[in-house]
Task: structure prediction
Amino acid sequence: MSSLSLSAPAKLNLHLEVLGLRRDGFHELAMVMQTIDLADELIAAAAPPGQLSLSCSEASLAVDGSNLVLKAAELLREEVSNPQLSAALHLDKRIPIGAGLAGGSSDAATALLLLNRFWQLQLPEAVLLRLAIQLGSDVAFCLAGGSQLCFGRGEVLEPLASTPPLGVLLLKDPLVSVSTPWAYGRCKALRSAQYLEGEEAFETRRQALRSGALLQWFCAAAQAGPPPVLRNDLQTVVAPEVESVQLGLKLLEQAGSPLVVAMSGSGPSLFALYASPAEAAEAGASLAPLSAENGFDQWVCRFTPARHG
Result:
């Protein structure tokens, strides 16, 4: 085929609990993650045999072999032992960079899905998942997206049965980014005394999340009232040190009648949830002048269901 495109949706963390340290030195996590309709677009077009290239609408983004899109493409070629597979890839970047929205991870996952189709490889989902885990902790979730529980480093997935039709108002200061390794380092420095130890303790917390108030609210037929306060252990260490996070949270609390306001991932993106996309749009319209005055970009979004294949 001459060309093919696929969207790469951003994600929100509705729950991010740092349980403790694993034997491999990484943090053990318990999360609820959700894709939204803010998305990059990845396009694959024909290229000479063996040639892989990447261009991007965002000039500041590296398009060499360090980019996860090209790393995903190389992994696929290695998996099928065919270095002659080729593609000219173009990334239309809409998800802000360094925002805690898994833009890079979603681009990598989308590259796996897109090139599996473009090259007509027909690799099964299990193989793509194995490759995704090699690329990064959030890439596995981003393969299907939707609404999922994510454990381990984020690669142990338990899809939820339904996705509520909620609206989202998203804010980010374009001049601010937060390093994920820095955020986890600060979490370890400030919260390690609260870390759990051992698989038994980790599983107890996982089960508490599975059966807790957040998922009962999330999976209800209708979200009649606000959810419990959303937990993000990284927010507790990032917000006190990043002024734009503090300000953005205050702005969102003034935007209509949000169900809840929180930071996503390691930040600095902030979001408010609303009972419907229409309410989110109304809140966004009312907040827009104040957002602009304070230097924030904003987006009105909605939750998206899982994608397949």
Remarks:
- Residues 251 and 291 are 8 Å apart (CA to CA).
